[in-house]
TrEMBL record:
It comes from the Bacteria. This is ATP-binding cassette domain-containing protein. It comes from Kribbella ginsengisoli. Pfam families: ABC_tran. The keyword Transmembrane does not apply. The keyword ATP-binding applies. Keywords: ATP-binding, Nucleotide-binding, Transport. Belongs to the ABC transporter superfamily. Transmembrane segments: none annotated. One of its GO terms (molecular function) is ATP binding. Residues 2-227 form the ABC transporter domain.
C-alpha cells in the first residue's frame, strides 16, 4: 500500500507536483496517467525517497521509504532503464545490486529466469536491445521480492511481444497481492493493464477511480443515426428536447441519449433508419477530455497557406 497525502514538489518556479493525495492498493494494477511533464516521474521519485517533497507525506506500507533498513525488500522500481553500467553483463549488474543490498545471490538466478533473460545474462548490457534493458530493469526491481513495485513507463518503445509480456507480469504481480503502480502517458496502454487509474495533469489530481468508472463516467453518450429523412428526424428530435446535429448528408449525431431512445422516436414518427448505433467515446478521447486543459503544448494541424 502506498499512501500520498498533500504531496507538493517545487523546483524553483516550477510546481511539478501540486497537493497530491491518493492511495495505491495491494492486489491491483494501478495506472498512473498524465501527459508529458504532468509530474509522474517526480511523484515516483518522491515515493522512493529519491527526491524530498516540498510538503506532504508519503507512506509505503505504513512507513516512509527512508525508514526501511532493507528498502529493496519492500519496494522495487523500474525508473530509467538507460541508467545501468553498460560495460557489465546482465548477471554482473544484478549480482552487484544483490550484494550491495544484502540479498542472496540465488535471487539473481531466479529473477533472470523470471524475466526470461537466461540467454542474455552472460552478455554485456551495451549490446542489449531496449526490450532486454527493460527486462533487466524489471529483474532488478524484483530482486528483493518486494511487496510494492513501481514501474515508470515500462511499455515505452517495446514491441507487441514485449508489451504483452509486461502486461502479464504486472497482472501476476498484482494477483500475488502486491501493490503495483505503473505510469504511462497513453490511456490506450492502460486500458488492458490497469484495474484503477490515477490521472494527473500539471501535478494535480484529475481522477482516481477504477478504469471502468473513469471510462464510463467520462464517456459522453452519443448516438449516430443515418436516415434518408435527416431534416424530418432532426426536427422531431429537437421538438422533443434532444440535442442533435446533422453531420454529412444523411447522418445525425444525438448527444447524451441511447440508441434505444432515438430508435423508438424514429419509429413513432415513421422515419426509416439505415443505421443506428451508440458511439463509445474512445479511451484516448476520454483521456484528452480529462487532461486537455493541462497539456502545455497541444499538437495543432499545420496551417495551410493558399
Ligand atoms: N530536477 C528538476 N528540476 C527542475 N524541474 C524539474 C525537475 N524534474 C522535473 N521537473 C519539472 O517538473 C515537471 C514534472 O516533470 P516529470 O518528469 O515528473 O513529469 P512526467 O509526468 O514524468 O513527464 P514524462 O511523461 O515526460 O516523463 C516538468 O515541468 C519538469 O520539467
Amino acid at each position: 500500500m502506498i499512501r500520498l497525502r498533500g504531496v507538493t514538489k517545487r523546483y524553483g518556479e516550477v510546481l511539478a507536483v501540486d497537493d497530491l493525495s491518493f492511495d495505491v492498493e495491494p492486489g491491483k494494477v494501478t495506472g498512473f496517467l498524465g501527459p508529458n511533464g504532468a509530474g509522474k516521474s517526480t511523484t515516483m521519485r518522491i515515493i522512493l525517497g529519491l527526491d524530498r517533497p516540498s510538503s506532504g507525506e508519503v507512506l509505503v506500507n505504513g512507513r516512509p521509504f527512508a525508514a526501511y533498513a532493507e528498502p529493496l525488500r519492500e519496494v522495487g522500481a523500474l525508473l530509467d532503464p538507460g541508467s545501468v553500467h553498460s560495460g557489465r553483463t546482465g548477471r554482473g549488474h544484478l549480482r552487484v545490486a544483490a550484494r550491495t543490498n544484502g540479498l542472496p545471490l540465488r535471487r539473481v538466478e531466479e529473477v533472470i529466469e523470471q524475466v526470461g533473460l537466461d540467454g542474455a545474462a552472460r552478455r554485456r548490457i551495451k549490446g542489449y536491445s531496449l526490450g532486454m534493458r527493460q527486462r533487466l530493469g524489471i529483474a532488478a526491481a524484483l530482486l528483493g521480492d518486494p511487496r510494492v513495485l513501481l514501474f515508470d513507463e515500462p511499455i515505452n518503445g517495446l514491441d507487441l511481444d514485449g508489451v504483452r509480456w509486461i502486461r502479464d507480469l504486472l497482472r501476476r504481480l498484482a494477483d500475488d497481492g502486491r501493490t503495483v503502480l505503473v505510469s504511462s502517458h497513453l490511456m490506450s496502454e492502460m486500458e488492458q493493464t490497469a484495474d484503477r487509474l490515477v490521472v494527473i495533469g500539471r501535478g494535480r489530481l484529475i481522477a482516481d477511480a477504477t478504469t471502468a468508472e473513469i471510462l464510463n463516467g467520462l464517456g459522453r453518450r452519443q448516438v449516430l443515426v443515418r436516415t434518408p429523412q435527416p431534416v424530418q428526424l432532426l426536427r422531431h428530435l429537437e421538438e422533443r428536447g434532444f440535442i442533435a446535429s446533422q453531420l454529412d448528408g444523411q447522418d445525425l449525431q444525438v448527444e447524451d441519449r441511447t440508441a434505444e431512445e432515438v430508435g423508438e422516436l424514429a419509429h413513432k414518427f415513421g422515419v426509416p433508419l439505415h443505421h443506428l448505433s451508440d458511439v463509445q467515446q474512445s479511451l484516448e478521447e476520454a483521456f484528452i477530455e480529462l487532461t486537455g486543459d493541462t497539456v502545455d503544448y497541444h499538437g495543432r494541424p499545420a496551417e495551410v497557406t493558399p
